[in-house]
Amino acid sequence: MDQSERFSVDFCRHDSTVAHAWARTPAEPSAAERVDLKGRVRSLLRAQDATLLAHYYVHPDLQDLAEETGGCVADSLEMARFGHEQSSRTLVICGVRFMGETAKILNPEKRILMPDLEATCSLDLACSAQEFVPFCDAHRDRTVVVYANTSVEVKARADWVVTSAIGLDIVRELHRRGEKLLWAPDRHLGRYIERETGADMLIWQGACVVHDEFKAVELQALIASHPHAKVLVHPESPEPVIKLADVVGSTGQLIRASRESQSEEFIVATDGGIIHQMRKLSPNKRFIEAPTAGNGATCKSCAHCPWMAMNGLSALARVLETGANEIRIDPEAGAKALRGIERMLDFAASRTAPARPRGAQSYGDAYAHGMGPA
Predict the structure, then answer these.
(1) How far apart (Å, rounded) are the C-alpha atoms in residues 297 and 112?
(2) Considering Cα of 142, then 146, then 150, then 155, what sign does the dihedral take?
(3) Separation between Cα atoms, residue 233 and residue 244, nearest integer Å
(4) For 315, which of 54, 187, 219, 268 is 20 to 30 Å away at the CA?
(5) Cα distance between residue 127 and residue 139, in whole Å
(6) What angle separates helix 60-68 from helix 31-47, to the nearest 10 degrees?
(7) Collapsing DSSP states into helix, strand and coil, what is residue 93?
(8) 168-211 pLDDT per residue, tens
């Protein structure tokens, strides 16, 4: 057994954290309560010079509010980049904790709030810095590449931080340079990139609680009943599921594929929250959630992240009213984590024209001039 196998985690079956997250899922407000809460949030955002950023996987109400108030709905990287480009003094992140931390790393001078600080990620939980740093130290000949779904401390040990949207291109370039890699934490995404690039990758054995539950046999049965549907799969899914895909990509890439494709029907193998945006962009098309082991079985994921579900309108209004749930990170760890993120951003900018402007002050300068959190 490879040393990294010791850190394999199956949260669906062996950990209480999923059940705890589902227990914290807020109750659905009534229609009248929704109207009141949305109005309060709009007023509070204006009063506090705050911008709302929501991930594709959170409740549709939060996605709509972000768009309606001048914020954004996006993946984790674009949320952080969008936030950095805003003049707002406060960013409110509807997502999971690593997204709030990434926003703080890139925007150390801003106040970052979240509806629930306990909204975490199974990939983050599966890769603690206490275990990961010694593992990296034992393989110093390898370039350390970590997925964005990790803590500040894990990012601080990495040479590169990547998202699913750009990880394949970055690894392909590192492989071209002849570098051997240590990849963490998602094993399915790591193996997909390894297969696509041929890179020498030592892969940490984490997995997403949602994507790990998609099953090829169930997906094949669904494809048989919808033979004209295009299959959209996130690369955090197991290899047999990926092999059935028409398109493999990040959340943003899958949304773009659904919009640009001439197909009128799609099977979507990622968190079901993404379908809200797909339907808004393509209202005449049909979107079907791919089956997981949770359908008729014991798993509680069922194509919806329990931690994303912890974000709610009431909690959002409460943090704006009270200032609670502010993200704070260690400035030294944040500065170290920033290096790997900036490498990714620089790589992305080098592949577009014109390069994305950063303004007079770089992200790193913000830390250098004491603008990090107290």
Answers:
(1) 38
(2) positive
(3) 8
(4) 268
(5) 16
(6) 40
(7) strand
(8) 999 999 999 999 999 999 999 999 999 999 999 999 999 999 99
Which of 4, 1, 2 shows the shortest CA–CA distance to 186?
Answer: 4
DSSP class of residue 351 equals T
List of residues 6+ apart from 344 with CB closer than 8 A: 77, 160, 161, 162, 163, 166, 170
237's tokens = 């899914």
Residue 216 tokens read as: 């090829």
**Strands 286-289 and 247-248, sheet pairing:** unpaired
pTM: 0.87
Q: How far apart are CA 290 and CA 231, in angstroms?
A: 9
Chain-centre distance of CA 294, in angstroms? 22
Residue 218 one-letter amino acid? E
pLDDT digits (tens, 9 = 90+) for 255-310: 999 999 999 999 999 999 999 999 999 999 999 999 886 555 445 447 899 999 99
The three-state DSSP-derived secondary structure of 60-104 is HHHHHHHHHCCCEEECHHHHHHHHHCCCCCEEEEECCHHHHHHHH
